[in-house]
Amino acid sequence: MKELTLAIMLLSPGLVWAAPKTAEYTVDIHVTASHLENECDSTPSRVACAKKLNLNAAIDGKKLELDGGIDDYLMRVGDYKGKVVEDAPQGSGEYLRKYEVVLADGTKRKFEAIAEEE
Q1: Is 89's pLDDT higher than 70?
Q2: Which domain holds residue 66?
Q3: Could you give the number of structural domains in the chain?
């Protein structure tokens, strides 16, 4: 029994270290729609298509469309935590922004803002 207790104590710091640091994910992301779109690339000899995940979301009071890249699965609507992983504003009012979103199981996914609405 002492060996089991010792093993648990020794492994616990490793488990804490491996857990996602959710404190750094402070951006509230409310996903209102999730949809898959076909994206095709063509060359003279072939056409290749894949599904791309796009989300409609409210972030910091703005309605955004987020591109999640190639995927076969929808994401459930609801509330998520995220963080900005790239933010490149231009002086003209244009910007490039990418987010990392934590899913319910702790998995992290990257999304790029591709549209903004009022």
Answers
A1: yes
A2: 21-117
A3: 1
